[in-house]
Q: What sequence folds into this?
């Protein structure tokens, strides 16, 4: 193992109220410990910055335990094995794993399975694509769409957060499957990109305040599938346009994550009754056994040029507190990743 490696880390210092601030984080450094039998040491290259991180900072019951005060912030990432006492991983391997917001992650033998570590195949995609289409957001898009959305050719799908990590893959897969695809995103440049580059049929700029009119115009036959990444008022408005037997995938509700007041639920939920429709939540980790199948399919689309991916790369571990906020003010354009080393 390389000698005297120093690991810089970002730890949760306080539970934020509203948007996180720099004071909610602490910056520490410590020597990388010696490896024991079966351990693997990974050098972080890129970290995935995810809206879910905001939820992990809160106390309370969820699908995963909160990050404890003083703990290294949880984060998935791509890195390179720099030392190994485990026959399954050799120095130089590129891996995807729960690395945390830090420069090095020593994964003890007993924690390897829980870290979700797996080797990535660089022939299928770049490291940042392995955090996007081929990584957790891509898996969320694919299984949310296929399992809950159950798209059929000719149906109309609406996806919010359309220019983001999950949204870009949802819309492109739905187009490949023959759906009419309408995105909702913030700002003209994101909407233009979604239509011109990704081939969506239309994209509604919610920041221009025209969601209701946009849905009327671009979904003349109503909405069969709504893939919801944002919740709040946009969800409520889409509910007024759904068809009989519509499927609504509750993937996330980013408009609500920094609320200091209770989450705003959909007032128009009786539209589900009238339309015999259903809303169903998904948690991507439930599909872990089936990731390889989705990776193979999505990598095939990337290779054949049927699918594009866009990542927004911010450089430097120390920029983490501000970089994370880009997700909540819409400054990220594509999947947000933090480059920690090259
Ligand atoms: N269920 C699961 O297993 C799972 C897994 C992964 C992600 N998710 C969820 O999926 C959603 C998208 O995640 P992502 O990683 O793909 O993020 P992302 O879309 O790449 O980035 C977040 C985007 O949300 C939009 N946004 C922020 N505040 C908003 C608001 N108040 N109203 C409307 N839009 C707002 C911004 O885009 P604009 O510029 O367009 O506003 C921002 O760029 C999140 O809700 C996340 O929690 C769920």
A:
């Amino acid at each position: 193992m390389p000698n005297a490696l120093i690991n810089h880390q970002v730890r949760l210092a306080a539970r934020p109220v509203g948007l996180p601030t720099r004071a909610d984080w602490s910056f520490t450094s410590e020597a990388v410990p010696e490896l024991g039998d079966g351990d693997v040491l990974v050098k972080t290259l890129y970290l995935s910055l995810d809206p879910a991180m905001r939820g992990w900072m809160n106390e309370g019951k969820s699908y995963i335990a909160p990050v404890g005060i003083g703990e290294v912030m949880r984060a998935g990432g791509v890195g390179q094995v720099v030392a190994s006492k485990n026959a399954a991983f050799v120095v130089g391997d590129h891996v995807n794993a729960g690395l945390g917001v830090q420069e090095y992650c020593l994964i003890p033998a007993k924690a390897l399975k829980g870290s979700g570590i797996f080797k990535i195949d660089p022939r299928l995609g770049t490291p940042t694509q392995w955090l996007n289409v081929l990584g957790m957001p891509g898996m969320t898009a694919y299984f949310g769409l296929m399992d809950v959305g159950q798209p059929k050719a000719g149906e109309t799908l609406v996806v919010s957060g359309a220019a983001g990590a999950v949204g870009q893959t949802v819309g492109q897969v739905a187009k490949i499957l023959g759906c009419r695809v309408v995105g909702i995103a913030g700002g003209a440049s994101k909407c233009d990109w979604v239509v011109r580059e990704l081939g969506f049929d239309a994209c509604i700029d919610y920041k221009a305040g025209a969601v209701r009119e946009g849905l009327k115009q671009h979904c003349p036959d109503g909405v069969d599938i709504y893939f919801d990444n944002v919740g709040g008022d946009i969800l409520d408005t889409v509910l007024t346009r759904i068809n009989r037997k519509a499927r609504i995938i509750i993937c996330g509700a980013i408009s609500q994550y920094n609320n200091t007041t209770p989450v705003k639920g959909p007032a128009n939920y009786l539209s589900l009754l009238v339309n015999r429709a259903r809303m169903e939540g998904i948690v991507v980790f439930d599909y872990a056994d089936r990731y390889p199948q989705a990776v193979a399919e999505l990598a095939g689309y990337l290779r054949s040029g049927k699918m594009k991916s866009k990542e927004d790369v911010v450089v430097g571990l120390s920029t983490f507190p501000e970089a994370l906020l880009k997700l909540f003010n819409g400054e990220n354009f594509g999947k947000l990743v933090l480059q920690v080393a090259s």
Q: What stands out?
A: The domain at 136-285 is CATH 3.40.50.720 (Rossmann fold). The longest strand covers residues 40-48. The chain has nine helices and 15 strands.
